Amino acid sequence: MNKIDIDSYRVKESITLNTAATFENFDADDAKLKKKLEKIRRELGEFQDVLYAHGKYSVLMCLQGMDTSGKDSLIREVFKDFNARGVVVHSFKVPTALELKHDFLWRHYIALPAKGKVGVFNRTHYENVLVTRVHPEYVMGEHIPGIHKVADLNDAFWEKRFEQINNFEKHIAANGTIIFKFFLHLSKEEQRQRLLRRLNLKRKNWKFSPGDLKERKLWDRYQECYEDAINKTSKTHAPWFVIPADNKKAARLIVAETMLQELKKYKDIKEPELDDKIKANLEDYKNQLEKE
Amino acid sequence: MNKIDIDSYRVKESITLNTAATFENFDADDAKLKKKLEKIRRELGEFQDVLYAHGKYSVLMCLQGMDTSGKDSLIREVFKDFNARGVVVHSFKVPTALELKHDFLWRHYIALPAKGKVGVFNRTHYENVLVTRVHPEYVMGEHIPGIHKVADLNDAFWEKRFEQINNFEKHIAANGTIIFKFFLHLSKEEQRQRLLRRLNLKRKNWKFSPGDLKERKLWDRYQECYEDAINKTSKTHAPWFVIPADNKKAARLIVAETMLQELKKYKDIKEPELDDKIKANLEDYKNQLEKE
Predict the structure, then answer these.
(1) Nearest residue to A184 (alpha-carbon basis) of A269, A282, A135, A253
(2) Would you state the pLDDT for residue A145?
(3) Quick check: is B1 in a domain?
(4) How much is the mean pLDDT over chain B?
(5) Do B289 and A199 touch (CB under 8 A)?
(6) Sorted alphabetically, which keywords does the UniProt record give (chains A, B) (predicted)?
(7) Structural domains in chain B (count)
(8) I want to staple A147 with a disulfide (CB 3.0 to 4.6 A). Which of A109, A152, A237, A272 is the partner?
(9) Res B67 pLDDT > 90
(10) Mutation site for A-interface testing, chosen from B199, B215, B219, B283 by largest number of A Cβ within 10 Å
């Protein structure tokens, strides 16, 4: 199969979602894609062991995408060879009353992965410039000082949020968090097919919510907000990758390969050396055990 | 291979660790054990999806065992087919200053899995009647009202802790947490071999700590404390299973099979039904999407 050029998905200057690919298959069949993914995730699993032992960096994977874009199954498949010990997934839903009593980044901040761990945000702090921008009435519930009516949620308000998000990411990156941001880019037609499948397959019915159809009506507005958010927050230390998501197997493969290639650049991540003093006495310790 | 009789590992009345098996292989080779484990963990993975969707129970797996008993690799292997989204592993180490400002169960309480999730405690609240009992000097750092000197840590003190632990587990079980407690029962000789391997294999060296040898000297005292703890806290709603741990592959298999057999008893855990009102309108929703 074709080589995966991860830079072709990376947002460097800016992107137009309208023309960005939503389908990829690398001229390979499902079986080939699956086999390749298995190989990559084994390597990722090995890297994770070293990351954990090294204990100086953490990895944060941010996952965004429209309903049915495959976020949950991607998490299941990509992290299969990770030690569960070192992965922490947070699925962010509607903020709770407690969370709303804090600023919009607070609940994300306290969910950040500890050093040595991989954190996955399933939906992320970006929802604060996505769902809340599409539905300004939601933001009004957040009691932000100076925000008293929907009209206050003007361009300047959203620019401020982008700036705050950029500062947040800059700060955690400078303190040892390796950040990946993936947008699972789904076509509107593929979403229609996936929703119909939920409705048609009895055992998938329970996943359906009428709200999915309401949000679908706002598709274009969501795409606008995604595009704006991605273009204003893709940085070298916290890049966005726009992943064609109509083919789930290819999407998982690109995400896994992107993480692997990027993480391999951190040559200083390695298993710790034994303390010199302990090293000097290794033979003694061996003798103690051997003569028991 | 022989059928796995999970009840033979369950502590019903009481157990004597001295005579309990530390080795098991089911008359099967490694390859067979591995294959069987793969089958069980796929079934566990499927169960987990349903547990998550159902969202009314949580599962808490408590894992205890001496150094090198294989806790970490067991977690890696048993949960491989779980969706990382639904598993939360907490490795409890020496309590932090903040944790010591709370009662000894606090840090475990706040780490409990949410409904729908599987929580793994890698070392658990039982360390409060194990390492702290073997080393009473550690407990003294906890500033417990009325405890002023090592002599205060008498039998009555430990009985009180067992009672508190039992009450804690009774409470969370009654509120929907399915509890498993596994003791990885390692022989002293196998630990010696595993420590020697750490010392002899250069790439495993960094895992070695001289403290391991110090704790090993207290082996018999640890076994006593384990036995007492297990016998005083094995309850129907929170049973202990004593797992022969000298053969890692068999140990993982027994743990996985135990969870699977026990979880299958919860016949009420199933995917949720669609709300009646939504069900009544399913055809409408389909039409909306189909005529788009």
Answers:
(1) A253
(2) 84
(3) no
(4) 95
(5) yes
(6) Kinase, Transferase
(7) 1
(8) A152
(9) yes
(10) B199
Query: How many angstroms away from the CA of A95 is the closest CA of chain B?
Result: 16
Nearest to A257 by CA among A182, A187, A185: A182
User: Is A54 a member of any domain?
Assistant: yes
The owner of tokens 């390859």 is B31
Of B116, B100, B107, B111, nearest in space to B52 by CA: B116
Please say whether the beta carbons of A262 and A237 come within 8 A: no
- For residue B221, the enclosing domain spans 6-290
Establish how many alpha carbons lie within 13 A of residue A208's alpha carbon, considering only the half-sphere containing its beta carbon. 30
pLDDT at position A273 is 87
Give the pLDDT confidence score for residue B3 in this predicted structure. 83
Task: Give the Cα separation of B178 and A118 in Å (integer).
Answer: 27
Q: What is the CATH number of the domain that holds A127?
A: 3.40.50.300
State the amino acid at position B92 in one-letter form: F
Which pLDDT value is given to residue B184?
98
Mapped to the 3 state alphabet, what secondary structure does A23-55 carry?
Answer: CCCCCCCHHHHHHHHHHHHHHHHHHHHHHHHHC
pLDDT one-digit tens code per residue, B91-135: 999 999 999 989 999 999 999 999 999 999 999 999 999 999 999
Q: What value does the mean pLDDT take over residues A196-204?
A: 90
Report the greatest alpha carbon distance in chain A. 79
The residues, ordered by sequence, that sit 6+ positions from A80 with a Cβ below 8 Å of its Cβ are: A41, B80, B81
Q: Which two tokens stand for residue B133?
A: 């009992």
Burial level of B243, CB count in 10 A (0-12/13-18/19+)? buried
HSE at residue B262, side-chain half, CA atoms within 13 A, is: 24
Domain-embedded: residue A209 = yes
B165 Cβ neighbours under 8 A, 6+ residues apart: B105, B125, B126, B128, B129, B233
Phi, psi of B190 (to 5 degrees): -65, -35
CB contact under 8 A, B272 and A206: yes
Look up residue B26 and give its two tokens: 């089911």
- Mean per-residue pLDDT for B174-184? 98
Bridge-based pairing state of the strands A58-65 and B58-65: unpaired
CB contact B143 to A (< 8 Å): no
State whether the Cα torsion B132-B134-B137-B138 is positive or negative.
negative
In this predicted complex, what is the ipTM? Answer: 0.87
Q: Quote the strand ranges of chain B, DSSP E.
A: 58-65, 87-91, 118-122, 177-185, 240-244
- Chain B residue with minimum CA distance to A278: B210
Q: What is the mean pLDDT of residues A114-124?
A: 98
Residue A273 CA to residue A269 CA, distance in Å, equals 12
Above pLDDT 90, what percent of chain A?
Answer: 87
Q: Residues of B248-264 as b/e, b for ≥16 C-beta within 10 angstroms?
A: bbbbbbbbbbbbbebbe
Residue A75 lies in a domain: yes
Which of B206, B282, B290 shows the shortest C-beta gap to A273? Answer: B206
